[in-house]
């Protein structure tokens, strides 16, 4: 019988952390995770079932994801050798830190933003530093650059549009950071399809730029497909830390099909954007709610008081939102993902009842 002191073996840095908590509902309306509310096309699902036979699940997947990279190259204009597939773009965030940072090195991001930059940095023993967003959820390049220089940051992560605030930061300020920062600028474009803006075309001129994208927000969250577009030299380095076969054959195949026949998803994106604009209009009519502009598939809003209570009442009624109240800059703030028209109306009805 072994009686090893397991906790003694665990690194102190890890003991001090909390696991990334994601609330979930087994039933009800999930407006908390920024997923696409619509399923993939019936044709794609049917083809996938038919194809399962030929996918040879007893064999490892293509380690180089060649078909998927070609599909991404065709839709983005990037070269296949610039592209790396991740098991979600979360995985690529970790790879970037592993490739570019020694223990104790700083990585930076604006605050508030996507939590995984900070969490992943902590898990790797790095030093996460942030620069504050102003009241318009934007930042000035010069003060950001100061923070980057002061901590000798090696990477700055810029979520564009920003999660959870929903907006795109000023392109001019980002441009200045790209031009003046002597480290890597990661433009995390997980929500790019809803914003229609990208920094991809800057990659030609600036070799310190990395673009991250994801299929999670546009319909394949369950298959975990993210990708990064890197300068070729950096892609070669990232491939050294990438786990072999990190992207499975079913995900590769479905993602390739989805990208090669994007019209169906493009229509879903149009509906989501139209619903987002309608929902913003409706929310802005509620006196007890302050709604922030969004370029994404979600909306951040602030209740004048009792955000926590509002969150709980909605949850009891079967509608799950993302509660951001614990962040000091986001008191009474909730984030709602754009759902189907019916889901959005249900959310609005419940909200009007509670907050009028
Ligand atoms: C959702 C999200 C991701 C990660 O998506 P994956 O599911 O891991 O592809 C990355 N960045 C931001 C800002 C996100 O909101």
Describe this structure in words.
- This protein folds into 2 domains: 6-40 and 264-355, Aspartate Aminotransferase, domain 1 (Alpha-Beta Complex), CATH 3.90.1150.10; 56-260, Type I PLP-dependent aspartate aminotransferase-like (Major domain) (Aspartate Aminotransferase, domain 2, 3-Layer(aba) Sandwich), CATH 3.40.640.
- It has 356 residues and is an alpha/beta fold.
- It has helices at residues 6-9, 12-15, 42-52, 66-76, 89-100, 116-123, 141-150, 171-180, 192-195, 216-220, 232-241, 249-260, 263-284, 307-316, 341-355; strands at 29-30, 83-86, 106-111, 127-132, 155-159, 184-188, 209-214, 226-229, 289-291, 298-303, 319-320, 322-323, 333-337.
- The strands form 3 sheets. The chain has a 7-stranded mixed beta sheet with strand order 2-8-7-6-5-3-4, with helices on both faces. A 4-stranded antiparallel beta sheet has the order 9-10-13-12, covered by helices on one side. Strands 1-11 form a two-stranded parallel ribbon.
- It has 15 helices and 13 strands.
- The structure holds pyridoxal-5'-phosphate (PLP).
- Pyridoxal-5'-phosphate binds at residues 34, 88-90, 114, 159, 163, 188, 190, 214, 216, 226.
């Amino acid at each position: 019988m072994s009686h090893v002191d397991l906790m003694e073996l665990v690194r102190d840095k890890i003991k001090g952390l909390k696991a990334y908590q994601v609330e979930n509902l087994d039933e009800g309306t999930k407006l908390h995770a920024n997923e696409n509310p619509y399923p993939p096309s019936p044709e794609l699902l049917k083809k996938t079932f038919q194809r399962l036979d030929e996918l040879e699940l007893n064999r490892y997947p293509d380690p180089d994801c060649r078909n998927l990279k070609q599909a991404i190259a065709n839709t983005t204009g990037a070269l296949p050798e610039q592209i790396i597939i991740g098991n979600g773009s979360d995985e690529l965030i970790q790879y970037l830190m592993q490739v570019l940072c020694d223990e104790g090195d700083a990585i930076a991001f604006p605050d508030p933003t996507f939590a995984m930059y900070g969490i992943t940095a902590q898990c790797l023993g790095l030093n996460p530093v942030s620069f504050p967003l102003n009241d318009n959820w934007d930042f000035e390049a010069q003060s950001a650059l100061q923070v980057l220089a002061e901590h000798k940051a090696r990477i700055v992560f810029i979520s564009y549009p920003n999660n959870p605030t929903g907006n795109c930061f000023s392109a001019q300020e980002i441009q200045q950071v790209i031009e003046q920062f002597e480290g890597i600028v990661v433009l995390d474009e997980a929500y790019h399809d809803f914003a229609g803006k990208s920094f991809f075309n800057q990659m030609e001129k600036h070799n310190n730029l990395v673009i991250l994208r994801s299929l999670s927000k546009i319909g394949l969250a369950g298959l975990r497909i993210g990708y990064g577009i890197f300068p070729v030299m950096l892609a070669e380095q990232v491939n050294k830390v990438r786990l072999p076969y990190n992207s499975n054959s079913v995900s590769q195949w479905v993602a390739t099909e989805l990208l090669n026949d994007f019209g169906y998803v493009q229509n879903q994106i149009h509906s989501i954007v139209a619903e987002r604009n309608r929902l913003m209009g409706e929310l802005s009519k509620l006196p007890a709610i302050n709604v922030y502009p969004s370029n994404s598939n979600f909306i951040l809003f602030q209740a004048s008081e009792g955000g926590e209570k509002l969150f709980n009442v909605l949850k009891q009624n079967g509608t799950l939102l993302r509660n951001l109240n614990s962040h000091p800059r986001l008191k009474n703030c909730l984030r709602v993902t754009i759902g189907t028209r019916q889901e959005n109306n249900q959310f609005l009805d419940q909200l009007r009842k509670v907050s009028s």
